[in-house]
Amino acid sequence: xxxxxxxxxxxxxxxxxxxxxxxxxxxxxxxxxxxxxxxxxxxxxxxxxxxxxxxxxxxxxxxxxxxxxxxxxxxxxxxxxxxxxxxxxxxxxxxxxxxxxxxxxxxxxxxxxxxxxxxxxxxxxxxxxxxxxxxxxxxxxxxxxxxxxxxxxxxxxxxxxxxxxxxxxxxxxxxxxxxxxxxxxxxxxxxxxxxxxxxxxxxxxxxxxxxxxxxxxxxxxxxxxxxxxxxxxxxxxxxxxxxxxxxxxxxxxxxxxxxxxxxxxxxxxxxxxxxxxxxxxxxxxxxxxxxxxxxxxxxxxxxxxxxxxxxxxxxxxxxxxxxxxxxxxxxxxxxxxxxxxxxxxxxxxxxxxxxxxxxxxxxxxxxxxxxxxxxxxxxxxxxxxxxxxxxxxxxxxxxxxxxxxxxxxxxxxxxxxxxxxx
Length: 422
Ligand code: UD1
Hints:
The chain is an alpha/beta fold. The protein has helices at residues 22-28, 48-59, 87-90, 100-107, 126-134, 166-176, 192-203, 235-248, 263-271, 310-317, 337-343, 373-385, 398-401, 405-410; strands spanning 3-7, 12-17, 39-42, 63-67, 72-76, 84-85, 109-113, 138-142, 145-149, 158-160, 182-186, 207-209, 215-219, 227-230, 250-255, 274-278, 282-287, 297-298, 323-327, 347-351, 354-358, 367-369, 389-393, 415-419.
């Protein structure tokens, strides 16, 4: 498996282009299953998770081809040949469960393996199951697979979600576009990726209102057509690269960034002494003084502070002045980066869902292990300012969510390279 080697201590300067959102693309791609007509996605990120979703859709009989080096995806589901999402593909990526809603709506049945994905918690499927059951689906768990059927077709209903799950909102939103009558999703997730999905579905002919709020109303239609849609900017990649000059020093412009995508994150950054300026082309970021200050962070569903930026924020707070308290409220096991950061000299105490980080003047490079997608990149960020060399091993998770991380950071002056594994 490849490793990334970072030698710390170089201030950064220049521009980093931010790709289209992985998490948006992973729900836009299965939306093709809802229609016989082609769907074209532009600004797609080039990531291994996108390849996994491509394989999954192809296994169902959809056609997926990539153009312009993977930036454009042409999808078509006119001839589906199955409704079974196999364990071999699903175990690689939890987002595979996003074929469940569309398959049920289009074919009246779906057999989907229970997912795998990052080892950051139990991540059950109960909210998805309850939501689709409310639309009239019958769902059973057998042999590790969810067997779902809607013999008489799905019917619009009131669907209150116990928790504003992103994936469950996406699954039920897609399913409801072809259900008979009106569906109201209450306590819906409000993430920008949901709004992006709703925009794309509307282009395909769906009738949706209220996305971006906690109450989404969908008027079912008989069929959906084709569309071309540009994937929204990746707010997690954006937040990650915004932290690079904060940790390493210097100034970087993240191209394509907008404050509206990362408002809660920017508010916290400003409290630590970081200047963030919106430009015509993106967001410029730099530290206002030599040091940043500690700040407390609680992860929450959007518009709160995103759990997917918690590890990267922790890497930054390791060298901020004072003690920060980080509270993880979305996933129960998401501090696996803490012991790795401690190997670099960070002072962190973890108690259940809380981590107390006391800033030290400087981290020291060390060999560390990447445990999940966001943890991997937090270790690279930490390495940017650490003394000496940091070697991040087992970086395969990284390629699931960040395209060419070493090229993007090298282009703004970081001393970073990838060492191919055996
Ligand atoms: C999505 C994102 C992921 C992000 C997460 C939270 C994608 C592909 N992934 O994941 O990067 O970290 O949102 O912002 O978009 N839960 C249940 N039962 C369910 C579903 C979820 O208990 O049926 C729990 C989960 O265990 C977790 C919490 O709800 O603790 C949040 O999960 P959810 O919002 O569903 O996250 P994902 O859609 O899996």
